[in-house]
Amino acid sequence: MHLLYVDMSGNVGRADETHFVMAGVAVFERGVHHVIQELDSVVEKYFPDQEISEIELHGSPMWGGRNFWRRVDRELRHKIISDALAVFRGASRSNLRAFGMIVDKAAVSPDDPVEHAFEQICTRFDKYLTRKYNRQKQRQRGLIVVDKSRYEDTLQALAHSYRSDGTRWGSLRNLSEVPLFVDSRMSRLVQLADLVSYSLWRRYEHDDHDQMLSIVDNFDRDGRVYHGLYHKTLPGKKCDCAACASRR
């Protein structure tokens, strides 16, 4: 089974924010333990005298220096984010694929950007599994694991709808059950998805490319086209980001 761990960045209700991001990290079930070990090693490297399970890798507080991270120097906080994202280039790189749905909220208004992003990420994860089956002739089911949030009821309802009626692009043939919702403090993989989503949000909301550039090659793609990276923009708006450029 392949697991897609999902988290989100950006506030749908804030008028001063332009973008909402939903991102995921896909990993084969046997690779989960190794990714957790790599992420735990990053935390232990910098906090050897603390209980590492109590330290959450959470993009926004790490970047801004809030909660636990308030007492950590800014440069060190950003270095830890970079080191955590480096698992995509480490021993687990062959097991990991990233997915990122970036939605300009005005481009889908009056529709809900959360619903738009969730339909996209479910569809693209399903297509990813179909592509793996077509090439390897080994069918694997997929399960989506999502951080508990205020969107839980919405996402549960959408998932039920997709199972019975499909998405606008057809049926989801490879996904098992409805999403599993977990507390991000208990899941290093959800924390990794959060770091991916926050890196994307920084790139599109604040034109800060640094963290995204370190992982852009790890988003699901086939040839030159990024299937795992999606950017919904206003009609007629020219964009040269990796997602948009790969489709021209």
Short summary:
The protein is built from nine helices and eight strands. It is globular and about 50 Å long.
Report what the structure shows.
By secondary structure, the chain is an alpha/beta fold. The protein has a single domain, classed as Ribonuclease H-like superfamily/Ribonuclease H (Nucleotidyltransferase, domain 5). The chain is built from 9 helices and 8 strands. The strands form 2 sheets. It has a 6-stranded mixed β-sheet with strand order 5-4-1-2-3-8, sandwiched between helices. Strand 6 and strand 7 form a beta hairpin. It starts with a strand and ends with a helix.
End-to-end Cα distance:
33 Å
Please identify the top-level CATH class. Alpha Beta
Strand arrangement, major sheet: 5-4-1-2-3-8
**Net shape:** globular
Classify the secondary structure makeup into a structural class.
alpha/beta
CATH topology tier name: Nucleotidyltransferase, domain 5
Number of helical elements: 9
Count of spatially separate domains: 1
Q: Mean of the pLDDT scores?
A: 94
Give helix % range: 40-55%
Beta content: 15-25%
Count the beta strands: 8
List low-confidence stretches: none
* Rg result: 17 Å
Order of helices and strands: EEHHHEHHEHEHHEEEH
CATH architecture annotation name: 2-Layer Sandwich
For the record, what is the CATH homologous superfamily label?
Answer: Ribonuclease H-like superfamily/Ribonuclease H
